[in-house]
Fold this protein.
Amino acid sequence: MNRIKYAIALCFCSFALFAQDYFPKNDGVKSKNTNYHAFTNAKIYVSANQIIDKGTLLIKDGKVVATGTSVSIPQNSTIVDLDGKSIYPSFIDPYSTFGVKKPERVRGGNGPQYGPSRTGFYWNDHVMPENNAIDKFKFDSKSAKALMKAGFGVVNTHIEDGIIRGTGTLVALNSEDDNATRILDPNSGQYLSFSKSATSRQSYPGSIMGSIALLRQMHYDADWYAKGYSETRDRSLEALNRNKSLVQIFDAGSRVNGLRADKIGDLFGIQYVILGGGDEYERIDDVKGTNATYIIPINFPNAYDVENAYLSRSLSLSDMREWNQAPANPKHLADNGVAFAFTTHELKSPKSFMANVIKAIDYGLSKEKALEALTSVPAKLLGKSSEIGSLKNGAYANFLIASGDIFEKGTTLYENWVQGKKTILEDMSVLDIRGDYKFNLAGDDYNMTLSGSLSKLKSEITSADKKRGSKVSYADDWVNIAMTSKDSTKQEFIRLVANVKNTNGFNGRAIFPDGNELTFYAAKQPKDDNSEKSDKKDKERKVKETVAITYPNMAYGFAEKPRQETLLFKNATVWTNEDQGILENADVLIKNGKIAKVGTNLSDSGARVIDATGKHLTAGIIDEHSHIAAASINEGGQNSSAEVSIEDVVDDEDIGIYRNLAGGVTSIQILHGSANPIGGRSAIIKLKWGESADDLIFDNSPKFIKFALGENVKQSNWSSYSRFPQSRMGVEQLYMDYFTRAKAYDDAKKSGKPYRIDVEMEVLAEILNKERFISCHSYVQSEINMLMKVAEKFDFNINTFTHILEGYKVADKMAEHGVGGSTFSDWWAYKYEVNDAIPYNAAIMHDAGVVVAINSDDSEMSRRLNQEAAKSVKYGGVSEEDAWKFVTLNPAKLLHIDDRVGSIKVGKDADLVLWNAHPMSIYAKAEKTIIEGVTYFDLDRDQRIRRQITKEKSELINQMMTAKNKGLKTQPIKKKEKDEMHCDYLDHANHAQH
Amino acid sequence: MKTNYITLLLVALLSISTVVAQQTPAKAQSKTIAITNATAHLGNGQVIEKSLIVFENGKLTNVADMSMAKMDLGGMEVINAEGKHVYPGFIVPNSTLGLVEIGAVRATDDDSEIGSWNPHIRSLIAYNAESKIVESMRPNGVLLGQITPRGGRVSGTSSIVQFDAWNWEDAAIKVDDGIHMNWPNSFSRGRWWLGEDPGWKVNKNYDGQVSEIKDFFYNTKAYMKGNKATKHLPYEATHGLFDGTKTLYVHVDDEKGIIDAVNVCITHGVQRMVIVGGYEAHKVSDLLKKNNVSVLLQRVHSRPSNTDDDYDMPFKLAKLLVDKGVTVGLESSGQMERMNSRNLPFYAGTTVAYGLSKEQALQLITGNTAKILGIDDQYGTLEIGKSATLFISEGDALDMRTNNLSHAFIDGRQLSLETHQTELWKRYSEKLKTQD
């Protein structure tokens, strides 16, 4: 159907333009131009690394026939002498929306929409592989002209909407011919992203981790569909399978999302081409590790307008650094062997494109790599190397004629040829009269400079060191200049008019305000070649410097990643959390990241000795319930989201990591939120500040998932009435339903028969098989009891109830079931279901034999968990030793990592905190926080780095002031604020309860 | 086992009678009480190691060193508090206690009114003296509070109450003490619902918003000079700012906002002003000191405002201001502010880890706050002639491990330290014990 439409559209267009060979002709005789065009004496860049000096380019029928120094030019050729000029292959933009309108956002509707809007397609509206850009494509001459002015000849366009966006269209910016000629490929690659479509209100996915999960599930479904198991028709999956062989271009838009996309690809053997974010330099090794080709936007940020000292104080170091460092991104990519193409994407207009490429070169990118990024790399990634991106024989005659090196400022682009069709950007027959002149009028000497572009000249005239107002126009070899007269009090003008015959100077006539006329000769002054050339060379050699990158690249980041040390703590009060209890005046030796010895009078020749006299050494704090260090927390688009995982969205740049270290925290469980009864999988991480996200996650991490009960999952506190369940009664049945289905799924899987891989069911089956543990958000006793009973029906145990504020009412039942309780120390009264929450909860559960932890669910409280533990001493009289275990050993037990962390025992990980006082005293402060022998927080370093931050920010502010004074564009100050995430944090929404 | 059973029975009976209702307010002091041998923290920076504290009819009649004061304690109720500590009742300013019971249940929320200019809106009449949350303040030593409305440019008028009363009228110790104004922010959020970037951008309307405040002052003063034939409730309520009968509490955090607020208020003749929040107040401490402007400092247990800020910035702000000679009290507004207010002593304790002395920290929630709120003639310190609003703790009350109250008094009345929460604790502890 589509193809027919396409053909019909073509027919109609064609009559109006040039008819194809087999098309009838009724408006004249059939005529075909078989002439050659030859361009001689040019410096020809056949490709970035094949350059011909004084060569000839011969083209015919829109293609390159030959290039070289000894090309024989046929008789029927038009010849253009390009002596002194250069020819480049024109540029290719592999990520474009040229000629394809972005769909409008659908509006209306009360409350969220959970189901799809379509039938016969994939269950999720945001997956649209069946879309084809060609169906919406309409050649846009105005945009084409703008792109051609920037040097582009070909763009790959697509519908920029949805998670799967369907196929793109490769189109030459040929305004003269029609789609029959300029569409180089109507199915040029498939486009993907993490962003939902504007055309549907379907809730899922509501987060980046949901998008990731959806992409995974969709691939499994496509595979199953391809094998013919589906009994119904799904045109999306059919299209997806059809598009499999195409290049896959992923709109990631940032370094981190690029890495996330690449991981999905790895799972299914797909190598995505990744649209990056320009921040790849921040962790270039990770980017290199993807082996992907990147498409890189070059919308380098403008300096911030920092004149207002109060406002500029709110600028973060990372935003300031971005301005300083981003122009070097292409250089870092090139230096590390990452293949990349440039795109105009993210630029407001293609006008600034070339200036930004030149900026990248100023920051160290080689011109050769720059040209590759504009030509051969995009051609290759699109699988079109023989047709575009070079001037090899047989390739399209897509090329630029320039006055010289296109990567130098002041070079003029004269012509942009696409498929052998010429577009004039600047008339190259015009004499270049730019330069400095001297002339004399009525006894006065004048100096004149003509600059700017030839079509828009600028003039500056001085006489007797005084500047005169002037205006110049230049067309058809005639110069007209109007300048103010000597008497600046009068509005009088002297007019100059001259016919230009050569570039050495021009004769003309001056007309004075009183009507007198005089002749004059403006003599062009020789360029001060020596000084300017050496200046220029100096400039070329001097690559612009940037401030140092740190890990992470923000305030408090490490210039070099810190190393593991052998450390010997002498004479400390050691809280072992083991049978030895609290040891006074004890020594602890840590080596190779492990606790090597605990005792007295220890020594080790290789160790750095730390005098811990009067100080307390404890195991690192473990937070069972945290939401820091994650890019998203809730996937509330459905009532179950077992398929999503926080491990996909760990954020290594959250300042919360550093602040938690400063509070003595070393390990956390990042839990999914409480938006739905079955939430997502957890990430259990160590707070290794400076390391990449994946390296934070525990090796062989125990598997956890978040469940949730009560007001949040029944959506009691905001307007949403359409999602099941809306009552606690429904919550039970939801679990019954899912576990019943998971059981059936698992049975089918184990039977050996073919089955559709369903990630959600896989995860739930892991629970049934006791391979995955539940940490369940819970408040009131009825629901706590209910979930234990549901689990018992399916023969497994709930591992942890988190929050569990009425745990004290059913502590006996909990102990019997064997579930742990991870609770707040003293929160209550913020919603109805915590009306009976009491700070004695931890103590009562502990007394009843439940393994108790105190958690934070809050990035402020998490850095004072030592104080929160101490509240158990106040409320309920728990012993200090036991209370301390509430935030160390007990959460380790609940997370099944107590074989590695949670106490000071030989062989365990050296995750330790040195406190200046009793660790549960309100007066205590963490001095050093160590993970696996690496000191990630040190109070002394913290003091040092504060001074460095102040210094670096002052320097950058100075640089920005300088930039503004130079007349460069600035942007207004913005204030960075990371969303503080809690249980019910939804991406782009503002529910903030617990 | 038998005793257990009896206790259980007693507790059960007690529970039945009290678990639904709140604690009954204490009767007026009938007998002179003497607390002996305690370490007395006076709330003005001084400590008496072995003290004698006597109060009669709700007033302190003696606060002295035990060894110096030769006093006949006959006829008095003597509490020997050897090894224990006595403190003035802690004061939580800028609080919505009693205005909201359960944040998520709209029907229980009475903390803000619609409109921008609400000086006439009075918190006191909505104050629920029987709130379960108010009651839960007392076991931690928080005995007084300034009940403050929220929202708008001018939120309304606060009043100061004590936390053991039958009703708001009995609770009030200073009615309509001040007006609360939210100073315009230098930054504003993008309106994401209109498709704007939701991040913070420079507030282009800042100057206009400041002008509105000036206009409001001008109009109030003009109105008061006229014949007031047509009553204007907001202007009537604002008048007290210019004759010193009311304090203007300006809620503002950024340096420029604080400077502007101080200058605008001085220019317009506001007699008493206090900065509430004051995250960057330490940068303009000279200005504040010169103009006698105090600071009710934002919650100590909070995150630094900016990514690049020192991790301990909120912990050390008090120290930075106190060192410069500014009068500082601690407030506790923000997320979960009501139930969290019982942690006020631990906010003070945290400032000790970051530089202050323990007695200085104590002043931030007692003597200084009383001074700032204008109730220091009666409350905030243990001095002869002042109200006997105080408590006895087993240990250091600024540290959660040792904050453990045995007695608490408001105006000499010994109040119950039981709460909805302690009752549930006892009830369920007993339930579990009997199952053993």
User: Anything to note?
Assistant: The two ends of chain B are 11 Å apart (CA to CA). Chain B touches chain A through 55 residues (CB under 8 Å). The first helix of chain B runs from residue 2 to 18.
